Amino acid sequence: MSKQAIVIQAALPLECDELVKQLHNVSRETRGGWVFWHGTYAGIDIIVSKTRMGMTNAAAATAIAIECFQPKAIINQGTSGGHDPQLNVFDIVLGEKVANINTVKTPVAAVGEGSNALTWVEAFDMLPEDESDPEPIRQRFYAADAGLMQAAQVVAAQYTEGKVVEGVIGSADCWNNELDRIAFLRQQYGTSVEEMEAASVAQVAIQYGVPMLAIRVVSNNITNNGQYNPDSGRACQAFVLEVVKQYATA
């Protein structure tokens, strides 16, 4: 396997099964609880990584992939829930930026005063320049790699199952179903969609200096009654393979 392989990540089988089916000369490797498939697609060395769900799983899988395989780039992709009412199921969001939307410092409240997540406006920066600061209160956004984003933009017109937009992908170990909370997060971070992995992948990748892009398909959107469709995961995988071909040949 080339040390210039491109890693494509997915949390769940429905987000990576089609990718694995498209690979030639496939081998499978398990490290800890994380699975990696090695193969080629259109002559390109690819590693499909099933990260499992959640921020910790995704961060660990990313560090393992970088340490073991020294990839050329990482694409974190899969399904997501819509925050933007203008997005429909099967629309794809290119993560111009990703953010951890659950790193917060809550306001002080005494016993009996309750809790209100709509007042949690102070965000922690997990990669502060000054690590001696015990409370680095600021929003941290991880920007997409320019080369990967350009490749995605080039092939966007080929996608026929919805529209392709650029936006902010919000990540957290949380599944938000409160419409007021979703509107709050969209106001605070500008989120287009939410999911559970991309920001932790970006946080690890940036520290290793590995190019990374998050790509998410809208699988459901509670803000406009868009019902969950698992086939959206297949559509995203097909789109990502086109992005990989464009990136590898640019």
What does this 3D model show about the protein?
Helix content is 30%, strand content 30%. The two termini are 21 Å apart. It has a domain at 77-247: Rossmann fold (3-Layer(aba) Sandwich), CATH 3.40.50.1580. The chain has 250 residues and is α/β, with parallel strands linked by helices. It contains 6 helices and 12 strands. It is globular. It has a 5-stranded mixed beta barrel with strand order 5-11-10-6-12, surrounded by 4 helices. A two-stranded antiparallel ribbon has the order 7-8.
Brief write-up:
The protein is built from six helices and twelve strands.
Percent range of helical residues: 25-40%
Report strand order across the widest sheet.
Answer: 5-11-10-6-12
- Tell me what portion of residues adopts beta-strand conformation: 25-35%
Oligomer: single chain
- Report the CATH C-level class of the domain at 77-247: Alpha Beta
Shape: globular
Task: Determine the CATH topology of the domain at 77-247.
Answer: Rossmann fold
Biggest sheet layout: 5 strands, mixed, barrel
InterPro entries: Nucleoside_phosphorylase_d, Nucleoside_phosphorylase_sf
Organism: Vitreoscilla stercoraria
Protein name: 5'-methylthioadenosine/S-adenosylhomocysteine nucleosidase
Domain Nucleoside phosphorylase: 6-225
